Amino acid sequence: MSNPAEQNTEWPLWEVFFQPSNGKPFEHAGSVHAPDSEMALQNARDTYARRNEGIAIWVVPSDQITASSPEDRGPFFDPANDKAYRHPQFYSVPRAVKKRK
Amino acid sequence: MSTFDTIPQTKKEIFTEILLRLADDRLILGHRLSEWAGHGPELEEDLALANIALDMIGHSSALYEYAAKLDNKPDEDHYAYFRDDIDFKNIALVELPKGDFAFTIARQFLFSSFSYFLYKDLTDTIDDEEFNGMLQKHFKEIKYHLRHSREWVLRLGDGTEESRRRIQHAFDELWMYTGEMFEMDKTFELATENRFYTDVLKWQIDWKEFINTTLEEATLIVPDYDQYMFTGARAGRHTEYLGFLLSQMQFLRRSYPDAEWK
C-alpha cells in the first residue's frame, strides 16, 4: 500500500527522440512530462521541435527504459580497448578498390 | 476604414478591411494567450500556450503588414498600437479575459476549429497570390492549434469531476460569443463577391458537426446554438475588457513612440 501523501502528483516522464532527416537514426533530445502518449508527443513538439529539428518524433515512457549501471562500465566497454580489428580503420583498403573512387 | 457601421467602398478598402478583421482576431487572442507565459499549469503547457500565442501574433503581423501596404500606413505597428478600442474589428470571443485553463482551452478550440474551416476554404478561394500564400503558411499552424486544444477538450471533459465541471462551464459561458464568427455583414458580403473572403455559412453545419462530435466524445453537453448571441464587436461595440487589454498592450509603444529594438 502506498501512502497517498507520498504519491507522485506529477505527470509521468517520457523520453523524446527525434529523427533529424530521412534515413537517419533517431536521436535522444531530452524528456517531457505528460499525462499520456499523445500529449507527450505534443509536448515534445512544443519543447524540442520549435526550430525545425526533425521530421519524426518518438516518445517512450522513461520507466520502460532499462539502463546499464555505472558498475557495468568495466565489463561492458573495457574489453573493446584491445580489439582494434573491430574498427574499420584497422583494415587497409586494397589499391584496386581505392582506384575506383 | 473608421468605426461603427461604415461600409468600405472601393475594392482596396474592402480588402484592407478583411485583412484587419482577420488580423485583429489573431492579435487579441494571441495577446490573451501570452498572459499565460509563466503561469501555465505545467512547464510543458506553458511552452505550448506561448508557442501558440507567438504563432497567432505572427499571423496578425503578416496580415497587418499587407494591410499597411494597401492602406499607405507606415507599418503594422500603426494598427496594433495606435488604434483605440472602437477601431478594433475583432469579435468579442477573443477579448474575454483568459479565465482558468479550461476557459482558455475551450475558447481556443472554438476559435481554432472555426479558423480551420475558414482557412481551408479561403486557400481555395482567394485569387490574390500574396494573401493566399500567407493563408497557406498559417493554415499549417492552425492545424496544430486545433489538435492541441481538441486533445485537451477530450481530456478535461472526460477527466476528473473538477476538470469536467470547469470545461463544461467554460463552453456554457463562451457559447453566446460564437455567433459573431458566422455573421455575414455587408462588408463580408462585398468581400465575398470580390473573392477576398468566403461565405462561412456554407460550412457552418460542418463546423457544428465537428464541435458536436468532439464535445460528445468528451462526454460534455453541447450548449444551445439558438440561444441569444452577442453581436457588434466587429463594428467597434466591444466588451469592457478590450480597453484594459489594449491599455496594457499599447502603453509602452505609445509612451515611447520612437523607441527601437536595439
Could you characterize the architecture of this molecule?
Chain A has 101 residues and is an alpha+beta fold. Chain A has helices at 37-48, 73-77, 95-99; strands spanning 13-19, 27-33, 56-61. Chain A has a three-stranded antiparallel β-sheet. Chain B has 262 residues and is an all-alpha fold. Chain B is 63% helix and 0% strand. Chain B has helices spanning 11-34, 43-71, 76-81, 101-125, 129-157, 161-174, 186-193, 204-217, 241-255. The longest helix of chain B has 29 residues, at 43-71. The chains are: A alpha+beta (101), B mainly alpha (262). At the A-B interface, helix 1 of A face helix 2 and helix 5 of B.
Primary descriptors:
heterodimer; A: 101 residues; Ubiquitin-like (UB roll); three-stranded antiparallel sheet; B: 262 residues; mainly alpha; Ferritin; globular
Rounded to the nearest angstrom, the distance between the terminal CA atoms of chain A is 68 Å
Describe the oligomeric state of these chains in a short phrase.
Answer: heterodimer
* Radius of gyration of chain A, in angstroms, nearest whole number: 21 Å
User: How would you characterize the largest beta sheet of chain B?
Assistant: none
Number of E strands of chain B:
0
Could you report the average pLDDT of chain B, rounded to the nearest whole number? 95
What is the general shape of chain B?
Answer: globular
Uncertain regions spanning at least 5 consecutive residues of chain B: none
Shape of chain A: flat
Report the end-to-end length of chain B measured between terminal Cα atoms.
Answer: 33 Å
Q: Would you state the CATH class of chain A?
A: Alpha Beta
Beta content of chain B? under 5%
- How much strand of chain A? 15-25%
**Major sheet description of chain A:** 3 strands, antiparallel
